[in-house]
Fold this sequence. Notes:
Elements lengths: L3 E12 L3 E10 L2 E15 L2 E7 L3 H29 L3 H23 L1 H4 L3 H10 L4 H12 L19
Antiparallel strand pairs: 1-2, 2-3, 3-4
Helix pairs in contact: 1-2, 4-5
Amino acid sequence: xxxxxxxxxxxxxxxxxxxxxxxxxxxxxxxxxxxxxxxxxxxxxxxxxxxxxxxxxxxxxxxxxxxxxxxxxxxxxxxxxxxxxxxxxxxxxxxxxxxxxxxxxxxxxxxxxxxxxxxxxxxxxxxxxxxxxxxxxxxxxxxxxxxxxxxxxxxxxxxxxxxxx
Length: 165
């Protein structure tokens, strides 16, 4: 059975409190083939989404295709590496296994690295303006990105001194 249609792929440039950028692709069997349009997605509802169409993001398109290639190449190399191992071709099996692990690492990194997943302050403002966000909303974004990051490390422990009596 062949499934075709359009879906969002390439989730990138998340903007806290607003949404994220994705690309609507024409797909066959969930393989992203043809990028159709860019979207600022503000909510997901079941199989659909709400948002604003924006210009297409090259970053989103490349990330969608890269994630697909990481999956295909990673699973393929692990499978062929296993077959090489069973045929006692250990050098090929090791190389294919390493390639498979590198692809899996690349896939995980594409979902975890902030420079892929989150928008820079400049990009966030550009997306908001293109999506027609109000001046008040853009001012809130400017304040959000101007706020310092909260400290994640606790203050160093101080030596205990007994209270004076």
